[in-house]
Design brief:
20% strand, 16 helices
Length: 487
């Protein structure tokens, strides 16, 4: 329908596809136009795909009120379109738009539209819950009837998520005999989205025991989900089933204690089956098992940093800090440092003596910030100053200036994100501020946290942890717990 789509198909024809089949999609021919004279039909053939998908009206309301034609003419539109594409050597998927609404309004006519597509030569009939309002039990009953009446044709399902049932409806349709499922990665789609294939596929494979992907491909699901989110410029949904970061995350002490005895006690599948992993979170709900699990994340060569540490004290510090506004669920690097600092062999990389930050505005220069930092590094007092775009940037520059000569690996540590959350907005500018900082050394990423009524103090806590963690990560050759390898 537009130059961009035409260019897409032109480029697609030049690619060698491994497991995918590109399909051109359109409506049936227009009323009062033959297929030969319909621009949409010409565009379908010009796309050059081996398979075409066409959608047609199956709900009498849409035939008479939207399409403004007769019921008989609509059946002819469907049959003519499919037959025309088949005559031009195209495989055809027929999408029965609003099928479930149409079936419930006029069962016989909805089935007649499918019969018209079959007469034209369609090899797949995809039943569409276009408005997304049908319930799973109705989907199952209707699909069962359609499958029984069309034994020589593959039945498919196409669901929308307007009632939060798209995945359940797709699975119910498969259980009722559907062999073709339409959906999208991460459920992207109009309004509330389409059926999320990142849930549909593992449900079919792992829960129903049916094969729908090549062997060992299911383990690529989590990476695929995140890759598509990046292309779409969307943040991955951390709470998405199967592939979300929190899908196999555990923080309650009772849960973690049980899982240290049997990992299946609080997980419905092994997360590695879908390319995900179990994570243990540390929070005010944690018990000793959470801290012990975090200790286990350290590699053997790094275990001496936490060996002999007081787990009880580490847990109490977490609980006390969370009561002050810290949140460690997304700040594993800060948790790792708390654990290290409990060990008797812990030696600080530096000691803060004092810092000061000034923010000024001058007529000729505009706004700028300057920070001074005084630290003790390896017995020497270092006093530095640096400017920055803002107070946190100035502090970062000053601290790096002080530590850089002793810890040159800081040149590789970059801050990639700085997030601020106001915890009790009801008290306005006196509210506690939580700061989360994401950092990277180009290979690994890690997150740290700080909290205070003073945003500079909160930022200093997160910043200090971020830089210390980066230094220790480099010293351990990139094997420190809490860091995640960048893909």
């Amino acid at each position: 329908s537009n130059p961009k789509d035409a260019e897409f198909f032109a480029r697609a024809r030049e690619m060698k596809w491994q497991t995918a089949t590109v399909v051109a999609f359109s409506s049936t021919r227009r009323v009062n136009l033959s297929c030969e004279n319909d621009p949409n039909m010409k565009a379908l053939l010009d796309a050059g795909t081996s398979t075409c998908a066409v959608f047609g009206k199956t709900w009498t309301l849409h035939v008479t009120e939207v399409l403004r034609t007769t019921l008989d003419e609509n059946l002819k539109l469907i049959e003519d379109t499919v037959a025309y594409l088949r005559a031009n050597n195209r495989r055809v998927i027929y999408d029965a738009e609003h099928f479930f609404s149409g079936f419930q309004a006029d069962r016989e006519y909805a089935l007649a539209t499918l019969a018209a597509a079959v007469r034209g030569g369609a090899e797949t009939l995809a039943l569409c819950d276009t408005n997304g309002g049908t319930m799973p039990h109705a989907i199952a009953n209707i699909v069962s009837e359609v499958v029984a009446k069309n034994s020589g044709v593959k039945i498919g399902i196409h669901t929308h998520n307007d009632s939060e049932c798209a995945v359940a409806n797709s699975v119910a349709a498969v259980q009722a005999g559907a062999l073709h499922v339409q959906g999208t990665i991460n459920g992207y789609g109009e309004r509330c989205g389409n059926a999320n294939l990142c849930a549909v596929v593992p449900n079919i494979e792992l829960k129903l025991g049916l094969r729908c992907m090549p062997e060992n491909h299911l383990t690529k699901l989590t990476d695929t989900s995140h890759y598509i989110a990046e292309i779409a410029n969307q943040n991955p949904d951390e709470f998405m089933a199967y592939v979300g970061r929190n899908a196999f995350a555990h923080k309650a002490g009772v849960h973690v204690s049980a899982m240290r005895r049997d990992k299946d006690s609080y997980q419905h599948i092994d997360p590695e089956l879908v390319g995900n992993k179990m994570i243990i979170l540390v929070s005010e709900l944690s018990g000793r098992s959470n801290i012990m699990s975090k200790v286990d994340e350290f590699t053997p060569q790094f275990s001496e940093l936490v060996q002999g540490g007081d787990i009880k004290n580490a847990l109490q510090q977490v609980k006390d800090n969370e009561a002050r506004g810290f949140s460690y669920e997304a700040a594993d690097a800060s948790v790792a440092l708390i654990m290290m600092r409990q060990a008797p062999q812990y030696q600080p990389l530096y000691e803060l003596i004092d810092y000061m930050v000034n923010v000024e505005h001058r007529d000729q220069r505009g706004s700028f910030a300057e920070a001074t930092v005084k630290v003790r590094v390896k017995g020497e007092v270092v006093h530095t100053a640096a400017e920055g775009d803002g107070p946190v940037n100035a502090l970062d520059n000053a601290l790096r200036k002080a530590l850089g000569p002793v810890y040159p690996m800081l040149n590789h540590v970059k801050l990639t994100d700085y997030k601020v959350r106001i915890l009790d907005s009801g008290i306005a500018t006196a509210a506690i501020t939580r700061v989360l900082i994401d950092s990277t050394d180009g290979v690994h990423t890690w997150s740290t946290v700080g909290a205070s009524q003073n945003i500079i103090e909160a930022s200093w806590a997160a910043l200090g942890d971020a830089l210390e963690y980066g230094i220790r990560l480099s010293m351990s050759n990139g094997s420190l717990a809490g860091a995640t390898k960048k893909e």
